[in-house]
Design brief:
With 336 residues, this protein is α/β, with parallel strands linked by helices. The protein has one domain (2-6, 21-328): 4-Layer Sandwich (CNF1/YfiH-like putative cysteine hydrolases). The chain has eight helices and 16 strands. The protein has helices at 2-5, 29-32, 93-108, 181-185, 188-200, 224-233, 249-253, 277-287; strands spanning 26-28, 40-41, 47-49, 59-64, 67-71, 115-116, 126-128, 144-147, 153-158, 162-168, 173-179, 207-211, 241-245, 272-275, 295-297, 322-328. A six-stranded mixed β-sheet has the order 2-3-4-16-9-6. A six-stranded mixed β-sheet has the order 7-8-11-10-12-15. A three-stranded mixed β-sheet has the order 1-13-14. The chain starts with a helix and ends in an 8-residue tail after the last strand.
Length: 336
């Protein structure tokens, strides 16, 4: 089963240590921050991110932003509405449902295109979706979904976690996966590719992938326990981490003001440990057999670019949700 899906077993048998045995590459936060991608503005006012270089006429795909929409829950009173796509406690169901129709219209041209979301729980569970799932009163519990059925739009919600889209250009099958650090360490991208191989006979050499906006290495601070989890699963786990200095300009200009008498490593001042989930998922896609030149990184740090994206961390837990969506277009289309 593992061989058929192109999967490998984890490294759980390896010894785990929470002690930093070697130094990490160090950088300032501003050195790692990158320019935000430029959204495409649809006729209905929705700002969304297509995948650069993807011009497959059989495929729908893209990543939402907070631009456009009808939600009032997460914007100033005098600002236009936003594109919250999650049924959060602060927002109305009517506004979110309308926003989902607006996103479907922006990506597919038709607001009635069925959009299938999931009940996500930071797992590595991937399900096969069909049109019948669009009518579910309660969505399936999973963090990824795959299909080869035309006419439906698969979605995962994010507000810092990494969204990954995969498409098989030969068999016209697609998948979308929600990869937070737990899903990433439990190999959801690899499992998703393996699921497409098992369900549709997909071959990695026929696949393309896109990694969307998320909390990037410039901002994604984690604890030693996360490092331990990655080291237990991946031989390259340690390479995914950086020590990042605070971008506080006052501290940089007047470092003597922040000196303490605490022992090294016991002061809150200094570099913090950050993980690069975008690179982690890119490596998983490579391990699953995809070619490097067919993996697109759309970019955009959700915490750096608050004007474009929702960030759970950046807003201290009070955030809307974005979506990554993918689907097989109905009707004939040229093969690519």
């Amino acid at each position: 089963m593992f061989a058929t899906g192109g999967l490998v077993r984890g490294r759980r048998g390896a010894a785990v240590s929470v002690v930093r045995a070697a130094k990490f590459d160090r950088a300032g936060q501003e050195e790692l921050a990158k320019v935000a991608p430029q959204p495409r503005l649809a006729a209905n006012g929705v700002g969304w991110l297509p995948v650069p270089g993807w011009s497959f006429d059989w495929l729908w795909s893209g990543f939402s932003t907070r631009i456009g929409g009808l939600s009032r829950a997460y914007c100033p009173e005098d600002a236009p509405g936003e594109m919250n796509l999650g049924f959060t406690a602060e927002d109305s169901r009517e506004a979110v449902a309308a926003n989902r129709r607006l996103l479907a219209e922006a990506v597919t041209g038709d607001p009635t295109t069925p959009l299938i979301a999931l009940k996500q729980f930071h797992s590595n569970l991937v399900v096969r979706a069909t049109g019948a799932d669009a009518g579910r009163e309660r969505p399936l519990r999973a963090d990824g979904q795959i299909t080869n059925e035309p006419g439906i739009l698969l979605a995962v919600q994010t507000a810092d976690c990494i969204p990954v889209i995969v498409a098989d250009r030969t068999r016209r099958a697609v998948g979308v996966f929600h990869a937070g650090w737990r899903g990433t360490v439990n190999r959801i991208a690899e499992i998703g590719v393996g699921g497409m191989r098992l369900e549709f006979g997909s071959k990695p050499e026929d696949m393309v992938a896109a990694i969307g906006p998320g909390n990037c290495v410039c901002c994604y601070a984690v604890g030693e326990e996360v490092l331990s989890e990655f080291e237990s699963q991946f031989s390259y786990g340690r390479e995914l981490f950086r020590e990042v200095y605070d971008a506080d300009v006052v501290r940089q200009k007047y470092p003597m003001l922040f000196l303490t008498q605490r022992a090294p490593g016991h002061s809150p001042i200094g570099p913090s440990l950050h993980v690069d989930l975008i690179e982690a998922n890119r490596r998983q896609l490579l391990a699953a057999g995809l070619k490097a030149e067919r993996i697109a990184v759309v970019g955009g740090c959700t915490q750096c670019h608050a004007e474009l994206f929702y960030s759970h961390r950046g807003s201290l837990g009070r955030a809307g949700r974005m979506m990554a969506v993918v689907g097989v277009r109905q009707g004939p289309g040229a093969r690519h």
